[in-house]
């Protein structure tokens, strides 16, 4: 499996991140989502077992529930800075 270009930059994301994937996605294999999840330190991965690429059509209520649940449990961070520069990544 070849990683998408720029995937190495994901390790710099520190904000809470929700990654949604369909188990049967033919456009973006779920393995890429697993790789992204491993690189983003504050990420949550939700794989929809009965979905392809169109999560909103395949499992609309589960899609909504995943987003609402994530937002309820992950309020917007007040700051997020890089270790190297201390520069804020959230405005």
What would the keywords be for this entry?
91 residues, alpha+beta, 3 helices, flat
Task: Write a structural description.
By secondary structure, the protein is α+β, with helices and mostly antiparallel strands. The chain is 31% helix and 13% strand. It has helices at residues 30-39, 55-58, 60-73, and strands at 17-22, 43-48. It has a two-stranded parallel sheet with strand order 1-2. α1 links the parallel β1 (17-22) and β2.
Task: Give the helix/strand layout.
Elements lengths: L16 E6 L7 H10 L3 E6 L6 H4 L1 H14 L18
Parallel strand pairs: 1-2
Q: Give the uncertain stretches in residue-range form.
A: none
Radius of gyration from CA coordinates: 15 Å
Question: What is the overall shape?
Answer: flat
Name the beta content range: 5-15%
Instruction: Determine the mean pLDDT.
Output: 85
Main sheet: strands, sense, barrel: 2 strands, parallel
**Helix and strand pattern:** EHEHH
Structural class: alpha+beta
Extended strand count: 2
Q: Count of helical segments?
A: 3
**Which strand order spans the largest sheet, edge to edge or round the barrel?**
1-2
């Amino acid at each position: 499996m070849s990683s998408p270009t720029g995937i190495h930059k994901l390790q710099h994301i520190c904000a809470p991140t929700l990654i949604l994937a369909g188990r049967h996605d033919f456009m973006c294999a779920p393995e890429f989502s697993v790789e992204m999840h491993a690189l983003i330190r504050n990420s949550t991965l939700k794989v929809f077992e009965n979905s392809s690429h169109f999560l909103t059509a395949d499992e609309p209520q589960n899609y909504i529930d995943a987003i609402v649940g994530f937002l309820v449990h992950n309020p917007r961070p007040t700051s997020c800075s890089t270790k190297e520069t201390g520069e804020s990544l959230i405005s």
